[in-house]
Amino acid sequence: MRAISEMYMRSGGTASPRYCDECPNLTSIGKHYDCKLYQEAGGTKHWQPSWVACKFFGLKHLPGQAVPEEPEQEIDGQLSLFD
Ligand code: SF4
What we know:
By secondary structure, the chain is an alpha+beta fold. The chain has helices at 3-11, 36-40; strands spanning 14-19, 26-29, 32-35, 52-54.
């Protein structure tokens, strides 16, 4: 299966007429292109900018993927709602 087909399956289809080269998740190292979200899902294949975009176009992370957040910090002098 082509790597992009896996992304169509995961995302629920294509985002035609957009292409991966318009998506902020397309990254490149040297001559190779990669999809950040495909890699986030554990994929290891390289990408083609000319592929028709998937429905995750422009998302920062895979939906439902737990993303570690910065712990909330209290600011000195900040009033709490519970004080
Ligand atoms: S997330 Fe962006 S780069 Fe990755 S397959 Fe979907 S449209 Fe292409």
